[in-house]
Amino acid sequence: MTPADFGLGSWPARRARISPGRTALVQAGRTLTYAGLAERVDRLAAALTRLGVRPGDRVAYLGVNDITVFETLFATARCGAIFVPLNYRLAHAEIHYMLGDSGASVLVHSPDTDELVAGPRPDTLRHVIATRPESCPAGGLDFEAELAAAGPPPATEVRLEDPCLLLYTSGTTGRPKAAVLTHGNLTWNTVNQLAHLDVLGTDKALCLAPLFHCVGLGQITLPTLFKGGSVEPMAKVDPGAVLARIGEAGITSFSAVPTMLEMLCRHESWDRTDLSSLTCVLYGGSPVAERVARAWLDRGVKVLQGYGMTEASPGVSMATHEGTLAHPVAAGVPHFFTDVAALGPELTPEPLGGTPAELLVRGPHVFPGYWNRPEETRASFVRDEWFRTGDVVRVEDDGWAHVVDRVKDLLISGGENVYPAEIEAVAVRLDEVDACAVVGVADERWGEAGVAFVVVRPGSRLTEAAFRAHLEQHLARFKVPRHVQFTEALPVNATGKIRRVELRARAAETFTNGPA
After folding, report:
1. Distance between CA 81 and CA 54 in Å, rounded?
2. Domains and CATH numbers, the chain
3. Which end of the chain, C or N, has fewer beta carbons within 10 A?
């Protein structure tokens, strides 16, 4: 089954619906059954075909989480075209670049992105469709009007190896590139999720993570729709509204990035919110502070860390309900249809073990390559089959994986490997520390030295001496950063990831690199 086949496939025999009356999508008082979703997707696919969309063409979406995102995704797949969800938090120039890079011929957008849509457009963009009539730009089209005027849906055969999605990476070091995910990639990721988790047709899932992000699509959301459960997209992550909705609607599951989990457990209504309906909360995208994981575990919610990346659709490994209490911040064990290995010194795959090593991944959920970037695609694979994740992983004797750091973030100080993520995890154990990022700076004596940028919680007082004393209590002395700088905030990109390249530049400008 592919996204086009979640009850919506073009082959008539696939259109037998198991439970057409079940609720598929919920939002702001609106409900859409699976039968209703299938009918609207058919009409939108017919509209896209009438506008000239053909197999392999790109249809972009720009806007917050909404039912129309799912309708556009499935309708695009129904046409055999490629869906391109765009990050609405970006600037106009960045959106313009992605539209041009993908060669999108149609853009669907919601009212909150009107300003981003205004202005110059790439030559390839032929049609702009607004999801609300009041947002129609000059010469633009109205979403509902196009559905109303649609004819018969296209009779397009979609294969597992056909491209389904272009997901742009976060671009922390340069211009983002798009990972091509096929229908097969998404299908096998869904199967992996279902093998790892007990997703039920009675589940009620919140969709909090943005749908332009692999966590928003691949974790919980598509598996829940595959099983016939209901998904409720939320346009904005307001912690109070999310907590209220969990209690009111009996929400059973959601996926999130660690920042969202921390926002929720810090909210004033956290202690009085009924969380008893939650059976599965996944997080991914970056490590979570142990204090945050413990806050959820103390409420009886076994939050599970999933490790992966866009190129793996995204799942590689995940914690289990049985083991999460003993491993609150570990990345768990590999998914069922996922092969993992370590990158050996001869650039060959080797067995993973307790020694940190770069992780290689292979499986039917791993992408075929980057959009129009053949050289970068070739460089990303070993022996044309093992994807180089760029992440350093350590596997314990019990088989549970721990993500140590990014290869490119590794510091070599005095001949010793120093992993910033390890230091950062220790730093945020301090109640006074809100966030911490460690980067390297050139040092004449040690080769490289660590620089810790520390964000202190509002109202807290923390001295450099106290911060260092805490690190020295838990880390070898060579791992303790030579320099410490307190800062009001860490620079992040549009998806919330720390822009370490900016911190490295700041460190180089600020600190002398001579011998101690």
Report:
1. 6
2. 3-158 (3.40.50.12780), 197-301 (3.40.50.980), 410-510 (3.30.300.30)
3. C
Distance separating alpha carbons of residues 45 and 235, to the nearest angstrom: 24
Pairing of strands 253-256, 280-283: parallel
Type of residue numbered 228: G
Please state the length of the chain.
Answer: 516
470 touches 481 (CB < 8 A): no
Token representation of residue 189:
């990721």
Residue in the structure block whose two tokens are 């995704």: 73
- Judged against a pLDDT cut of 50, whether residue 173 lies above it is answered with no
232-285: pLDDT as tens digits: 999 998 999 999 999 999 999 999 988 889 899 999 999 999 999 999 999 887
Contact 159, 183 (CB under 8 A): yes
What is the tens place of the pLDDT at every residue in 359-415? 999 999 999 999 999 999 999 999 889 999 999 999 999 999 988 888 888 888 877
- Helix or strand (DSSP H, E) at 247: helix 239-249
pLDDT recorded at residue 55: 97
The pLDDT of residue 170 is: 63
Q: Is the dihedral of CA 453, 93, 406, 445 positive or negative?
A: negative
Distance CA 38, CA 14 (A): 12
Distances (CA, A) of 106 to 79, 81, 87, 118, 146: 13, 11, 16, 15, 13
Residue spans of alpha helices (H) in 152-234: 183-196, 214-218, 221-227
Question: Distance between CA 324 and CA 316 in Å, rounded?
Answer: 17
Is the separation of the CB atoms in 429 and 290 below 8 Å?
Answer: yes
